[in-house]
Amino acid sequence: MSRTFDDARRWARFGTALFIKAADDEALDAPSALPGWTRKHLLAHLAANADALGNLVHWAATGEKTLMYSSPEERAAGIEHGGRLPAAELTAWLRLSADTLESAMATLGDEQWQSPVVTAQGRTVPATELPWMRSREVCVHAIDLATGLSFADLPADFLAALCDDVVAKRGGGPGPALVLEATDTGARWELPGEGGPVALAGPLHGITAYLTGRDTTLGGEPAPTLAAWL
């Protein structure tokens, strides 16, 4: 599907509310679905991500170069520090950073939204990409909190857009050639790779979980191992 700027804004708001609600749990020291990370680490990551995207909003608004993070080491250290904060303090940071980012984005005019900024991966993109970047973080990591949510709880149009995004990113890297078909929507993706294409089918939410590395099966059957997505 062809996602729009308004779509991304809507998904970012939806995912933020979903993540914050899922994070409203006393067991924040429990493991998340990500190896080596507790739920606290995920909260710290999402809070820091909002602050970092806020840096890019500032760049777009003022023209003053403001990187997301000063370095990968600074980013990692911030997450580790946040993971050790008391739950109340960490939750307050999560909420404040999300509100501050939303308020900052709301002030950007049409011309400012077209301003080029640089992501943490070094890609130069227009500021219009920032809501999509945020929606991916909050929606996917809401599932990673391991509080009972699944990809089936996310909007179908977001899932389709995420599959488009993942396939585009995976298309240039190593891995098996795949043809994936969503049995509930009819959507289809071709992933170039090594060997003859393997045909896989399943519900849209299952395909999304597989492509993002959150499941190693599809339709209950083992699926080819994929390399890291991001």
UniProtKB/TrEMBL annotation:
Keywords: Isomerase. Signal peptide: none annotated. Residues 17-146 form the Mycothiol-dependent maleylpyruvate isomerase metal-binding domain. This is Maleylpyruvate isomerase. Pfam families: MDMPI_N. One of its GO terms (molecular function) is isomerase activity. It comes from Streptomyces albiflavescens. InterPro entries: DinB/YfiT-like, Maleyloyr_isom, MDMPI_metal-binding, SCP2_sterol-bd_dom_sf.
